[in-house]
Design brief:
Largest sheet: 7 strands, mixed
Strand content: 25-35%
Number of strands: 24
EC number: 1.8.1.4
Radius of gyration: 24 Å
Shape: globular
Number of helices: 14
Domain FAD/NAD(P)-binding: 10-321
Active site: 439
Protein name: Dihydrolipoyl dehydrogenase
CATH class of the largest domain: Alpha Beta
Cofactor: FAD
Number of domains: 3
């Protein structure tokens, strides 16, 4: 045990260098604490290397493809000749490499000790990496998530996850996307723009089932218009594959055939075999159970990000990392509830939402205690210029604050900043209606929706 006694000790020892882990580390050193950051692969985790950043790069290439295809509509005579996946990947990988280099420099410059290798929790204050024990007065578990599959559904060959989809060096002719959530609709959107025949299979009654009903309606209508096919309300039964392609069967016997099957049924927590349960940490279906202040109930062990039940979003993990660093430093930070974490789905049209859907608001505040309004982007100058339809929907407590903002349309993701301030600062529609929104912007639509909900619609 001699090596245990001389083990390097830190104020905070973080297991995992993704959004949650590195945010914990950066905020902790800012507060004068010493930090050890254990990472088995690359700093930046899923988000930077095979999640948010590379996916959004593909979506931008897809947007450019659509612009080229539709150029004549705007008086620009270009034609879309082909999609060069080698060049698309070079662009995407270049973005990732640049961000990775910047992050490495930032972590190094702040004096954070990066411990390379696969770490395991071997005691409530110890993480062992490649046989060496490191001690932490506080431990933060931030091991992230992986692309899940369904029981009995083997990934391999023509059955792929988003990890393989991000590395593809060719454009398939046809794809079946299993799962109509965020990841599924984003990839469906990219592939459709690249000229692929796409069918989404979703067992639940609609695409993006976690969104407000009004948003779902617009997305499904627009996807139909774009030629993206989808089958909802029937669950997946099985898949067969051969050299020619895949054949997917649903529980009702319906079959679909394509070149590939993308399994996009969500992400699972990466917690298996890391010593968490042995150290006394409560695990439920792979997730680490914490109190609202992200403490596990064991020693000084905290958890952040995708391994904590709730919305699996990089910026939530990031915010939780900052929260835990401040919590450990005794600053008593404010808890941000999951419901008030902003969400953006970057398909075309984009979806952005924060707070309660109308249905959820009625369940919480009472059927007759909720008011909502929808502002149609058809009336917005900038949206007309961009050639997008869509809506901005506000949900408020009757005579009370705005509790939800839901948006759909090209580029509306950029409006989530003001939307989350409105909801998190518990603004009344009257407060927002009195503020000036620049013209011509899509941002004005937020002002218009607020005016309508305040009972004084200007353009409606």
């Amino acid at each position: 045990m001699a090596d245990q006694a001389t083990a390097q000790e830190f104020d905070i020892l973080v297991l995992g260098g993704g959004s949650g882990g590195y945010a914990t580390a950066l905020r902790a050193v800012q507060l004068g604490l010493t930090v050890g950051l254990v990472e088995k692969a690359k700093l930046g985790g899923t988000c930077l290397h095979n999640g948010c950043i590379p996916t959004k790069a593909l979506l931008h290439s897809a947007e450019v493809a659509d612009h080229a295809r539709d150029g004549a509509k705007y008086g620009v005579n270009v034609e879309l000749q082909s999609i060069d996946m080698t060049a698309v990947n070079a662009y995407k990988d270049g973005i990732v490499a640049g961000k990775f280099k910047g992050l490495q420099g930032l972590i190094k410059g702040k004096g954070i000790t990066v411990i390379e290798g696969e770490g395991k929790l071997t005691a409530p204050d110890t993480i062992t990496v490649n046989g060496t024990a490191y001690k932490g007065k506080n431990i933060v578990l931030a091991t992230g998530s992986y692309s899940r599959s369904l029981p009995g559904l083997e990934i391999g060959g023509r059955v792929i996850t988003s990890d393989e989809a991000l590395k593809m060096d060719y454009v398939p002719k046809s794809v079946i996307v299993l799962g109509g959530g965020v990841i599924g609709v984003e990839f469906a959107s990219v592939w459709k723009s690249f000229g692929v025949d796409v069918t989404i299979v979703e067992g639940l009654p609609s695409l993006v089932p976690n969104e407000d009903a009004s948003i779902i309606k617009v997305l499904e209508r627009t996807f139909k218009k774009r030629g993206i096919k989808f089958n909802t309300g029937t669950f997946f039964q099985g898949v067969e594959q051969d050299n020619d392609g895949v054949k997917v069967t649903l529980v009702d016997g319906k079959t679909f055939e394509a070149d590939l099957l993308l399994v996009a049924v969500g992400r699972g927590p990466s917690t298996a075999g890391l010593g968490f349960e042995e150290a006394g940490v409560t695990i439920d279906r792979g997730f680490v159970i914490t109190n609202e202040r992200l403490h596990t109930g064991v020693g000084n062990v905290y958890a952040v990000g995708d391994i904590v039940p709730g919305v699996q979003l990089a910026h939530r993990g990031f915010q939780q990392g900052i929260f835990v660093a401040e919590e450990i430093a005794g600053m008593k930070p404010v808890v941000v509830d999951d419901i008030n974490v902003p969400k953006v789905t970057f398909c075309d049209p984009e979806i952005a939402s924060v707070g309660y859907s109308e249905k959820a608001a009625k369940e919480k505040f009472g059927e007759d205690r909720v008011e909502s309004t929808e502002y149609n982007l058809a009336g917005n100058g900038k949206s007309a210029i961009l050639g997008t339809g869509g809506i901005i929907k506000f949900v408020r407590e009757k005579d009370g604050p705005v509790v939800g903002v839901h948006m759909i349309g090209t580029r509306v993701g950029e409006q989530i900043g003001e939307a989350q301030l409105i909801v998190n600062w518990e603004a009344y529609p009257e407060d927002v209606a009195g503020l000036i929104h620049a013209h011509p912007t899509q941002n004005e639509a937020l002002g218009e929706a607020a005016m309508a909900l305040a009972g004084r619609p200007l353009h409606g």
